[in-house]
Amino acid sequence: MHGYANPARFLKIARWFTMPLLVGGLIVTAAALIWGWMSSPPDRLMGDSVKILFVHLPAAWLGMGGWTAIAIASLVELVWRHPLAAISARAVAVPGAVFAFLCLASGSIWGRPTWGTWWVWDGRLTSMLVLLFLYLGYIALTNALAREGSSSRIAAIFGLVGAINVPIINRSVVWWNSLHQPPSITMGNSAIDPVYLYPLLACVLGFSLLFGGVVFARMRAILADAQAEARLRRKAQKAELAQATPGDA
Amino acid sequence: MTDSATKGLKPKHQRLVLLSLALVALIGAGLLAAWALRNQASYFYLPSEIISEAPAPDQGVRLGGMVEMGSIAEQPDGTTIRFIVEDGTAEVPVSFTGIAPALFVEGSGVVAEGKMGADGVFVADNLLAKHDENYMPKELEGMTREQVRQQVKATLE
């Protein structure tokens, strides 16, 4: 893994991956959504609103997957001090927050016609909202640390502590009575009819590719930012030196 | 951890051990908290819970369970319905006046917000429909897995 610790080598790979992931993600997502929305019949009870599932479930998975990735990157940063770990965690936070928000928004729109309410404070909805707030706090913290040039270790600890929320979201509908239904897809089992399941999995793939593309693009941007700053700092130092010893210039 | 125990460890491994211990403690704390919340964090009471630990007459509670088959009865005033919520072991009669959500049907889940009446009838002032985890088109409703497979195959051929 330390082979990719060198940002130059990583950038070479990232440059190659970013566009295919973004373009591929857009194409797969668009195709999967059209497939799902056009081909699948109305649900026996929910009618056409079942089609919100094609956005809601991938967004929920990626929202939770994003924080899992932040937790793993934080562990790698704290233990192995891998130079790219903090950068990848920072890069994941923004798309993760977007997907968590998308999950909450689509779920709310879906809840109105099916449950009869936009929002309830049950275990699943509340813990997912907590995840969105954790993302926002994490983004604010990492931005502040980067601005001050401080160590990102405190953010890594935040990332690890916040990870306790992910299994709580996952188990909330099993541990506690909730308005949200129990999981439809568990290890190798699905309560979702194949006419919905296959387009749904295609949507998950498309959204995941997009997520990956955005993460690579953001990692490159963060690295470029750091590089530009270092260059400016060197320039300023050189200028200072030149002023201090006019004869040498 | 004694000095002799840590001396042999590389800093990297020392950090890994410390962090693992911290994570185990954190997960333990989280699980304990979730365990302690197991009653309070529930969104509603099941009929058996409401019968065994009856709430105070004027206390607002939520009752959740399945709407018993054939139990929905419209009252003469035209806006009130009565039905029975059950959880397999106990059942509670519910009365509700107002517009029920579209997914409120017999044999499906419901969450009723309201108060327990003195006569044992739960008076709901709001109904929420609870969907189950199954997603299925109308045409395939009530079929077994094998029948669905054959139906899909027949459509494709």
Describe it for me?
Chain A has helices at 7-39, 53-80, 85-114, 123-148, 153-162, 165-175, 194-244, and strands at residues 185-186, 189-190. Chain A has 249 residues and is mainly alpha-helical. The longest helix of chain A is centred in the last third of the chain and has 51 residues, at 194-244. The radius of gyration of chain A is 22 Å and the shape is elongated. Chain B has 2 domains: 3-36; 47-130, Nucleic acid-binding proteins (OB fold (Dihydrolipoamide Acetyltransferase, E2P)), CATH 2.40.50. In chain B, a hairpin with a 4-residue loop joins strand 3 and strand 4 (91-97). Chain B is flat. Chain B is 31% helix and 25% strand. Chain B has helices at residues 3-7, 11-36, 47-52, 145-156, and strands spanning 61-67, 73-74, 80-86, 91-97, 109-116, 122-130. Chain B is built from 4 helices and 6 strands. Chain B is of the alpha+beta class and 157 residues long. Chain B has a 5-stranded mixed barrel. The interface between A and B is large, with 44 and 46 residues.
List the helices and strands and how they pair.
The complex is a heterodimer of chains A (249) and B (157).
Chain A: H1 7-39, H2 53-80, H3 85-114, H4 123-148, H5 153-162, H6 165-175, E1 185-186, E2 189-190, H7 194-244
Antiparallel strand pairs in A: 1-2
Chain B: H1 3-7, H2 11-36, H3 47-52, E1 61-67, E2 73-74, E3 80-86, E4 91-97, E5 109-116, E6 122-130, H4 145-156
List keywords for this structure.
heterodimer; A: 249 residues; two-stranded antiparallel sheet; 2% strand; B: 157 residues; alpha+beta; 2 domains; five-stranded mixed barrel; 4 helices; 31% helix
Short summary of the structure?
The complex is a heterodimer of chains A (249) and B (157). By secondary structure, chain A is mostly helical. Chain A contains 7 helices and 2 strands.
- Please write the CATH class name of the largest domain in chain B: Mainly Beta
Which superfamily, in CATH terms, is the homologous superfamily of the largest domain in chain B? Nucleic acid-binding proteins
Report the portion of residues of chain A in β strands.
under 5%
Provide mean pLDDT of chain B, rounded: 83
Total count of helical runs of at least 4 residues of chain B: 4
Adjacency order of strands in the biggest sheet of chain B: 1-3-4-6-5
Backbone shape of chain B: flat
Terminal CA distance of chain A reads 44 Å
What name does CATH use for the topology of the largest domain in chain B?
A: OB fold (Dihydrolipoamide Acetyltransferase, E2P)
Beta strands of chain B, count: 6
- Integer average pLDDT of chain A: 91
Sheet of most strands of chain B: 5 strands, mixed, barrel
Which strand order spans the largest sheet of chain A, edge to edge or round the barrel? Answer: 1-2
Q: Total number of helical segments of chain A?
A: 7
Order of helices and strands of chain A: HHHHHHEEH
Q: What percent of the residues of chain B sit in helical stretches (DSSP H or I)?
A: 25-40%
Could you say what the CATH architecture of the largest domain in chain B is?
Beta Barrel
Tell me about the largest β-sheet of chain A.
2 strands, antiparallel
Proportion of β residues of chain B?
25-35%
* Percentage of residues in helical conformation of chain A: over 70%
